[in-house]
Write a sequence for this structure.
């Protein structure tokens, strides 16, 4: 499901990995035929269990990994067709916020060097100009100017993630992929970081892909949500509609698994059968069928198309009665 007029368009995105030696090679299906669109200024969440393909989508869009097949278009430019040199220049328009604020910052570089590294690669001349831009972005993420001459180990996890956000913002990108940006942080600082991302997105009219396993965070941050399972899209809907009236059995299971501190709240949790299948040997037909409590024989032979079941609400399930 793509819109040719969208700011970001992903069509038929597929990523397979080959594992093993001679005679023992296996194909790992990280992504299979993923298609969606994102409007300019929109925040879209990618959710699903570990191994669902969320991070693979984000990294493939920025071509941090090369897709096996499919097309990625940003503001009319076919990103998948860019040469190495053109991609390097185009990358200023799309930036990544990494999950781990500790591993993503070099301990050997000052914060000023970390922030201005991208500016140097993009040909921004003048040391004073680059420093002024770094000071401005530190102010935007609520960190003091003297942070420029310090090292990452001198900061807390929340502050490091703010530095990571600043590194993404300093090139004034159009698209940001935020990969679990608060999952490695203490609960006490998660809300501050989320609110910072929201305000920066609105102030700069950023288009954002927000990767998370926390549906509560996704509901707060995102305009729409894409639910993934084993490299395929199960459901797409506006965040409020998805949380209030999920249409796919997998989405319902994810939502019902959200902890509820009310001991008197009803516990209507649809059971998920078995374990997550191996991406090296995905089930035939619907990849979710081996865990679905509503699976029928036809689920084993038919790959369900992503179809609109309500305004701007899509699901991939052959069962119309669910």
């Amino acid at each position: 499901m793509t819109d040719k007029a969208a700011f970001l368009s992903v069509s038929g995105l597929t990523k397979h990995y080959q594992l093993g030696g001679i005679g023992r090679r296996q194909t790992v299906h990280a992504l299979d035929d993923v298609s969606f669109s994102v409007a300019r200024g929109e925040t879209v969440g990618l959710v699903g269990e570990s191994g669902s393909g969320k991070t693979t989508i984000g990294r493939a869009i920025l071509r941090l990994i090369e897709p096996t097949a499919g097309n990625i278009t940003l503001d009319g430019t076919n990103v998948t067709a860019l040469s190495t040199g053109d991609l390097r220049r185009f990358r200023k328009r799309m930036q990544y916020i990494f999950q781990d604020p500790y591993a993503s910052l070099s301990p050997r570089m000052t914060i000023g060097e970390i922030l201005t590294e991208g500016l140097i690669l993009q040909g921004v001349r003048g040391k004073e100009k680059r420093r002024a831009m770094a000071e401005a972005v530190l102010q935007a993420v609520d960190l003091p100017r003297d942070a420029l001459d310090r090292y990452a180990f001198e900061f807390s996890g929340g502050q490091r993630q703010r530095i990571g956000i600043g590194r993404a913002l300093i090139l004034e990108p159009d698209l940001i992929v935020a990969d679990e940006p608060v999952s490695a942080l203490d609960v006490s600082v998660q809300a501050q970081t989320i609110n910072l991302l929201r305000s920066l997105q609105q102030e700069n009219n950023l288009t954002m892909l927000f990767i998370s396993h926390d549906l509560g965070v996704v509901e707060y941050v995102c305009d729409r949500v894409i639910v993934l399972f084993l490299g395929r899209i199960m459901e797409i809907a506006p965040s409020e509609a998805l949380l209030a009236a999920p249409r796919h059995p997998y989405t319902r299971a994810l939502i019902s698994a959200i902890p509820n501190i009310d001991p008197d709240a009803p516990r209507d949790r649809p059971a998920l059968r078995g374990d997550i299948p191996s991406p090296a040997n995905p089930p035939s037909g619907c990849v979710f069928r081996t865990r679905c409590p509503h699976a029928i024989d036809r689920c084993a032979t038919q790959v369900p198309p992503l179809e609109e079941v309500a305004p701007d609400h899509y699901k991939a399930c052959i069962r119309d009665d669910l």
